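Design request, tokens follow.
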């Protein structure tokens, strides 16, 4: 089954007309996207994009072979131009199945937002799922009747990461599924951060005009991956980072950024190392805020015993945070007392930190760890404060050395340091 992405943007496109925002101002070249539209085997068109005949021509297609045009969502704004000879666009009622003259089977999938998703099965049994913008398949476990994993899924990954998590939980998306982000608008982060965020979600974005094959490659003599903006093989999916360290100062947005990195995964175990503080209302409010913004499918464990968790098999771990883990570890060795520190506390703490770094190195779980970056400000006035600053710097460096990705979050902006 051959796919041609005639557009990959939000319904308003990217950049939006007359929008002065920073994302629209920098959406140039491959970053510019027309409204999402997908051409399947040259004969089935899902959604319309402005200037669709020209978009098809640039990708090496004409629309003369299109036998069915299906809309996935309401098309607001000016009336969409429909080229002469193109069938009248239609919406299929939820659950209804069509068998097209060209041989594909199409089933309409109910969604939790206005619109309809489409499941397309090709001649050789290859399967794709196409979801409208801002939508997830209705229900809590993915498309009803999704009997096997999809080969390709096209959806609003950044707008609805929870929808991707549901598909994974249902087994409809597996590590072999190619997840393509579409409906990309000016709410996505600018620059390369979009690609980094998609990589963390196990997805990717491609430019308008990209052509790719679902399932086995075309037989000799059948047009494959050539021509148009998508000339040549589609880029390989970037490897999923197993270990990520997110650093930042107070209120920098580091915890929110760490949560984003796992938002498309179900059954995440959120490991809170801060514990509870009786009578501290401000601390209780912080903890409550963190809990409220986590997906309902995530579980929480309040512990500083991280090494056994890293050694176990299981769902992804979000460790928030290493700086509070270090506070607990220093309490345990009485590191605040100079005599205890000199009498073996320093050695014991270094052993604990080395054990944690080694556990990060050898873990088979996906891990996103959060830590504070405290060494860039005023020198602490006390010996204990300087000791904590120094040990946290050492711990951060040791854990960062074992991670594929390291980010520094400043004013809510993630800056890649590694990976």
């Amino acid at each position: 089954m051959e796919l041609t992405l005639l557009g990959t943007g939000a319904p308003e496109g990217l950049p939006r007309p007359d929008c002065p925002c920073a994302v629209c101002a920098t959406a140039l070249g491959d970053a510019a996207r027309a409204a999402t539209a997908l051409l399947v085997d040259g004969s089935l068109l899902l959604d319309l994009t402005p200037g669709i005949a020209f978009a098809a021509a640039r990708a090496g297609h004409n629309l003369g072979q299109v036998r069915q045009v299906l809309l996935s969502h309401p098309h607001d704004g000016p009336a969409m131009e429909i080229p002469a000879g193109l069938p009248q666009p239609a919406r299929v009622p939820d659950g209804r199945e069509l068998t097209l003259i060209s041989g594909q089977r199409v089933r309409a999938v109910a969604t939790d937002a206005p619109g309809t998703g489409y499941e397309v099965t090709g001649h050789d049994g290859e399967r794709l799922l196409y979801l409208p913008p801002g939508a997830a398949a209705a229900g809590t476990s993915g498309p009803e009747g999704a009997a096997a994993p999809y080969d390709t899924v096209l959806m609003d990954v950044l707008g609805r990461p929870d929808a991707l998590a549901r598909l994974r939980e249902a087994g409809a998306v597996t590590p072999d599924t190619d997840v393509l982000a579409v409906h990309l608008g000016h709410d996505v982060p600018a620059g390369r951060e979009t690609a980094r965020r998609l990589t963390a979600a196990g997805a990717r974005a491609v430019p308008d005009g990209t052509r790719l094959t679902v399932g086995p490659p075309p037989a000799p003599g059948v047009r494959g991956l050539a021509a148009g903006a998508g000339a040549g093989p589609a880029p390989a999916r970037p490897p999923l980072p197993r270990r990520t360290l997110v650093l930042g100062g107070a209120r920098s947005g580091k915890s929110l950024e760490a949560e984003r990195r796992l938002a498309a995964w179900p059954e995440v175990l959120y490991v809170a190392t801060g514990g509870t503080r009786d009578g501290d209302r401000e601390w209780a409010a912080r903890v409550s805020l963190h809990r409220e913004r986590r997906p309902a499918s995530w579980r929480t464990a309040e512990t500083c015993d991280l090494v056994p968790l890293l050694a176990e098999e299981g769902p992804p771990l979000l460790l928030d945070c290493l700086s509070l883990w270090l506070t607990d570890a220093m309490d345990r060795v009485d590191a605040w007392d100079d005599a205890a520190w000199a009498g073996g506390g320093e050695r014991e703490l270094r052993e604990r930190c080395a054990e944690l770094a080694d556990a990060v190195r050898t873990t088979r779980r996906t891990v996103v760890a959060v830590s504070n970056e405290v060494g860039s400000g005023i020198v602490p006035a006390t010996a204990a404060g300087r000791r904590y600053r120094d040990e946290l710097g050492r711990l951060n460096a040791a854990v960062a050395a074992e991670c594929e990705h390291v980010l520094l979050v400043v004013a809510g902006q993630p800056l890649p340091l590694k990976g």
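Comment from the thread starter after seeing the answer: thanks! The first strand starts at residue 2 and ends at 7.
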